[in-house]
Write a structure and sequence with these properties.
Blueprint lengths: L1 H10 L1 E3 L3 E5 L3 E6 L2 E4 L3 E5 L5 E5 L2 E4 L2 E3 L1 E4 L3 E6 L9 E5 L2
Antiparallel strand pairs: 1-11, 2-3, 3-10, 4-9, 5-6, 5-11, 7-8, 7-10
Amino acid sequence: MQEYLRLESTHKFQQIEVVHKVWEKSTLGFEIERYTVSQGDMLIIETTEGRFYKKPILELQKENVQYASLSITDKTNIAIRVEPPINNKCKFYIERK
């Protein structure tokens, strides 16, 4: 399963390049551009030990307002909540659309 998730993170997902912060081991703040993101979309997390986990987006926020879905055109800072634990040292991958 780990090899499958590693390959999927490379071919079907894109790495989130600008991560701002992780709060409470479950909320990721980052910058994204030209993307539509929704609750239920998947996130792949790569730990510093090289382990991969796939988790659904449970909550989505922009400027402290919760959304079910966001269509983003310009560079925008958003926050998503996933099932813990995550931390600032992880790499994050979001589905390519």
